[in-house]
Amino acid sequence: MLLAIDIGNTQTQLGVFDTAGELVGEWRLSTHRDRTGDELGISVRNLLALQSIEPAAIGGIIAASVVPPLTAALERMGDRYFGHAPVMVDAGLVDDLPILYEPPEAVGADRIVNAVAAREKHGSPVVVVDFGTATTFDVVDTEGAYLGGVIATGVGVSADALFHRAARLPRVHVAQPEAVIGRNTTASVQAGLFFGYAEMVDGLLARIVDELAAEPRVVATGGWSATIGEACTRVDEIDPLLTLQGLRLIHQRYGRA
Fold first, then answer.
1. What is the set of active-site residues?
2. Are 125 and 141 in contact (CB under 8 A)?
3. Most CB atoms within 10 A, among 2, 28, 121, 198?
4. Nearest-CA neighbor of 131 among 228, 64, 61?
5. Over the stretch 199-238, which tens digit does the pLDDT of each residue have?
6. Domains and CATH numbers, the chain
């Protein structure tokens, strides 16, 4: 079995794939950058126990992380609790994805993984919109190369900033309100966040399409994708498991068991 780990700034997504490539367990945890290898190991083993998966059944580990302080903790977790050093995804690992970003090593591991998964599933051109702490757009061009993308503030960060910087505005749950014109403060803030982000995504996608001079498939993923993605007219598919599937593909092709 393969343990796949995607460490984001806010959440960590974990998945276990069986030998046939089927996802048999999936979880999300809060990311804490000061978490130790022992804490990670105990947490992961407890999650596996909920699915009746023995630690000895894990034959490999692959991880994508945008939180450098957790790299050493991941390595300790893998060695001590599973007997496997994790394969860490970076630009140098995936040699069949030409990276036109400058410099290539500046591309986040999660963005590489998403590009690999989306290209494998949909061909090219393809665009991945990842609704996480940041809202990122990753573009694979018609030749199948990673062209680059866009990084924007995530909707959760914007909601927190609005609450902290505007003394009279309440903290609100980001969700689709009944109408664009809010009839109270909470609904007004929700409308601004929800519809504002949907329009931002559609607007940026329109500009990306113009620059590509091609019509890409657009896939949404990430923690906020199910909330915001449904309202984006240019999003073709919502796939919350895209990153985990990309990790599985990369381990299958390049990983060391």
1. 110
2. yes
3. 2
4. 228
5. 999 999 999 999 998 999 999 999 889 999 999 999 999 9
6. 2-88 (3.30.420.40), 104-245 (3.30.420.40)
